Amino acid sequence: MALDIATLRAKHPDHWMKACAIRALALDGVAAANSGHSGMPMGMADVATVLFGRHLVFDAAAPDWPNRDRFILSAGHGSMLLYALLYLTGYADMTLDQIRTFRQWGAITAGHPEFGHAKGVETTTGPLGQGLANAVGFAIAEESLRARWGARVIDHSTYVIVGDGCLMEGVSQEALALAGKLELSRLIVLWDNNGITIDGKVSLSDLTDQKARFAASGWAVFACDGHDPQDIDRAITAAKAAGRPALVDCRTHIALGSSAQDTPKGHGALTDAKLIADTKAAYGWPHAPFVIPADIKAAWEATGSRGRAARMDWEARFAALPAARQAEFARIFAREAPARLTAAIRAVKKSAVEKLPKVATRRASEMVLEAVNPVLGETIGGSADLTGSNNTKTPDLGVFDAANRKGRYLYYGIREHGMAAAMNGMALHGGVRPYGGTFLCFTDYARPAMRLSALMGIPVVYVMTHDSIGLGEDGPTHQPVEHLALLRATPNTWVFRPADLVETAESWELALTAKRTPSVLALSRQNLPAVRKVHTSRNMTARGAYVLAEAEGKRKAILMATGSEVEIALKARDLLQADGIGTRVVSMPCWELFEDQDAAWRRKVLPPGPVRVAIEAGVRSGWDRWLCGEGGKRERSGFIGMQGFGASAPAERLYAEFGITAEATAARVRALLG
Fold this sequence. Notes:
Elements lengths: L4 H7 L1 H21 L5 H17 L14 E4 L5 H11 L6 H5 L29 H20 L8 E6 H5 L1 H13 L4 E7 L16 H7 L3 E6 L3 H12 L5 E6 L21 H11 L10 H11 L3 H12 L3 H11 L5 H17 L3 E2 H12 L6 E5 L3 H4 L18 E3 L4 H14 L3 E7 L3 H14 L4 E5 L17 H6 L5 E3 L4 H13 L5 E4 L4 E2 L17 E4 L5 E7 L3 H14 L3 E6 L3 H6 L2 H7 L5 E5 L8 H4 L9 E4 L10 H7 L4 H12 L1
Parallel strand pairs: 1-2, 2-3, 3-5, 4-5, 7-8, 7-9, 9-10, 10-12, 11-12, 15-16, 15-17, 17-18
Antiparallel strand pairs: 6-13, 14-16
Helix pairs in contact: 1-2, 2-3, 2-4, 2-11, 2-12, 3-4, 3-10, 6-8, 6-18, 8-18, 15-16, 15-21, 16-21, 18-19, 22-27
């Protein structure tokens, strides 16, 4: 640090007091909660003050203005930095009482920033690296929308503060490499380079030259003294003009001015009264806890309104657009589906029952997308290097890259985690609907971001193909057995496993009209016969489960299945009916939606009495809800599926060897009936 505190106070008094308002609120909020992270806000207050005061284009009175610059705190443990900024600049919902009740029940000031709790919180951060990877998605969405709507409507930047931990997480490499390849010039990363982690100095565990790493991935790299406002301003100004994504190395001191400065202690909660008093004295801050002098608050509120003229100019430009254009813009940002979507889905379904195609559901998904993508201009597709296997690219999309910002398809490379996190960012930015594909087994790589999709309530669509041992010879490393159970265990996630083209079309319709729920489409590699043979305009998948084939004669058994095993259930029904055993087949493409149905519908589909057998080429976990609950009994239920991992062999052999067959299903029913 070239300038000590005394010099900073003397040379930049106005800046210093504004920055110290952040530091004081961070100290007070963490002390009141007796938990949190004081040191990061204390260290990055100068950078944040310069960023908000001189560069970030926003209006605190209009936090949802579509053309605002986005600010993301990837180092989410330093949440009091963000909350202090929102309060000081005048966001209406971020009151002083919210600051006082930091980390308490019912407060919008959660321990880590949570999207949807407070205006100005653009994404949920805390899991390190996620905010950085989200920011790549924000920048992609901005570039895409600017190309389609013009710079008079969309023209803004994305700023993200990262810490050492964010840059150690593996997702950071996926994110920065993708951003570099795409030349996302409106993305600026401010690195809080304080050299400290919880365990000690960064050098205990890492020796990476971060600036060289970013430069090697195509980024412009700058550095500054993170406590000198003039130097910070110089570096950010240069970063904005770089013409490619930019990293600013902000050399800072964690817990600046306290006895915990530059120590691991400074990373955590500084709650000792003497330490806080001594630190505030060093700052020249004599005010009581949570007291911000009127002149300092007024200066910050002026910062909060600095972008008001730009916002009003934008509103005037927007109002000058044709009414239809305004309505379309409002629609995509409201996540409303166009009226033509229903007709497109209905046409696919009608054609399917006329032609009864035998196709893999991954191909069925592609057929739906071929009908849907021309109708929904806001979709942005992609795949983690499995485009030909996931069937996610349709001819009309074009490729999004540095040369073609109007393209709507992304080649993510082998970066499942980075892809998922970037899609979160796109959905959060608004105006686009992202979907991306990989193999279902590789949700393991993407799961941290998929969990955040659910937590934040954003409708990202995950196209996960090769959904069972049915993928065959690639073997158990690629054959998911536990993944459906893991995904179904995640709150606020729709897991669709359609059985044919009709169910696939219905699943896509639900995924593309969702507003606050992400969807997973688990799709087969192998061809499957059509099972829905009568057209209906009703979306039966929206019910979660429904009767596909009714029992003939007295109903004695109910077979439940999803996806590729619905075919097996129907064949087993034929065997049982031939023996005079009345058997109903229930297709269950989405458990979560079935759970949401009223008790009367669930009882209608799964009435008590008959024996129940579930068939799915995965583990049993979760199935007992439907086998033993909802009027079922354990002693009158069975499961046909996987008990362990798969093997390498053709699909037909694997199904036979693991006993997932119509014959095994019929035998289980007969045994249960005694």
